Amino acid sequence: MRITFPASHERIGAVRIHEAGRIIELDSAGDRCEADARADHAFLSSEVLESAHRRLTVVVPIKNERRSTLRGVLAGIPGGCRVVVVSASEPQPIDRFGLEREVIDDFVSRTGRHVLHVHQRDAIVAAAFEQSMPELLDGAGLVKWGKGEAMLVGAMIAREFDSDAVGFIDADNYVPGAVNEYVRIFSATIASMKSEYTMGRISWQSKPKVDEGSLVFNRWGRSTTVSNQVLNEVLSHYLGEGTRIITTGNAGEHVVSMPLAGRLRFTGSFGAETGQFIDLMEQYGGIIPPIGDVPERVDVIQTETINPHFHEDKGEEHVAIMRDQSVATITDSPICPPHVAEAYRTEVPVPDRYPAFEARPAIDLERLEKGGAGDVER
Ligand code: GDP
Ligand code: CO
After folding, report:
1. Is the beta carbon of 311 within 6 A of some atom in ligand 1?
2. Which of 12, 245, 262, 288 is the most exposed place for a label (fewest CB within 10 A)?
């Protein structure tokens, strides 16, 4: 695999946000060529990628998605990666969690892969987390609903697997080949990182939509456009000059090295993605006093995919909720300059932010693995 090195970066405190790199070649044969001496791109052999896959856990948050789509997503995740499917699928009118389990069991029995399937609202999951992250539980004693919450559950499970990194892949991706590319990029990012505190984010080459019968290849999705803009305005304020470097403000597809994942304060619901940029700037941006020690260098590597991003279109209302939660996460931050907070203020409740899990005790994995649909709230 060949990926161009980022041409430039913006720096805020210890955080370097790199301009998006591009894919030159998805799959490279074993040998380097003469051009590699120019060193304008990273070369990753199949062996390097495969060993990185083995040290990666891929978390797939899923809520009421089609079975065939989940089957495609699983098929696209390179062999070697462990997979954790964190579900919030509703049991009515059909038992979607049970249907997911059938797809997963079939995949596992044919491939011998390691896939853990848990339900976010399972009492067994709540019991496994109540010592380590009680903040995740709600009044009913179960893990709260929400995509960011599912990501935190998955990341803490990945830590128990001793993975070097945790990646996130949405379950509603229609193109298994794109999923395969995203995870290859995750592994490439982790295999070539310069700081153990590294995050890799996927920048979609395009996000096609069907519009009056024809395919329109939009550069960015509707919610992403706003999130990138607001994040870039915050960043510009501190840089003292305009920047548009952030193109992955809403990237559900991203990878985090485990040392960084353990220190991040995850944001719940759909604040999850913008929350990561905000938390990096709060903790390591040198803007407000840090809560712990600051690593010398934290890298955000953005990579533009060569596949288009086709996912389930969930409609205007859903996009509006997502957009507002992502934006509220930014405007609520103490580092958000007042003029930006004022310009983008929304009415939605600000998503919860969770403490870092690095210092928290291990979750009870054995108990989790025995779980199943268990006591899923019905
Ligand atoms: P978008 O792709 O950013 O428009 O957001 P989606 O609504 O498609 O959500 C991204 C992924 O998270 C999809 O795979 C959803 O099924 C999943 N998802 C959304 N909300 C939840 C949730 O509350 N819990 C879990 N476990 N997954 C969720
Ligand atoms: Co989606």
Report:
1. yes
2. 288
- The pTM assigned to this predicted structure is 0.95
Indicate if the pLDDT at residue 115 is higher than 60: yes
Alpha helices in 5-114 (DSSP H): 46-53, 67-76, 96-111
Instruction: Place 211 in a pLDDT band, splitting at 50, 70 and 90.
Output: confident
Q: Which domains does the chain have, with CATH numbers?
A: 2-370 (3.90.550.10)
* 129-150: average pLDDT: 96
263: left (phi over 0), alpha (psi -120 to 50) or beta: alpha
How confident is the model at residue 311, as a pLDDT?
84
Pocket test for ligand 1, best of 170, 313, 317, 321 (most atoms within 8 A of CB): 170
Using an 8 Å Cβ cutoff, are 84 and 57 in contact? yes
Choose the residue to mutate in 58, 63, 121, 267 for probing ligand 1, maximizing ligand atoms within 8 Å of C-beta. 63
Q: How far apart are CA 181 and CA 303, in angstroms?
A: 11
pLDDT of the residue at 374? 44
CA pair distance 3, 29, nearest whole angstrom: 14
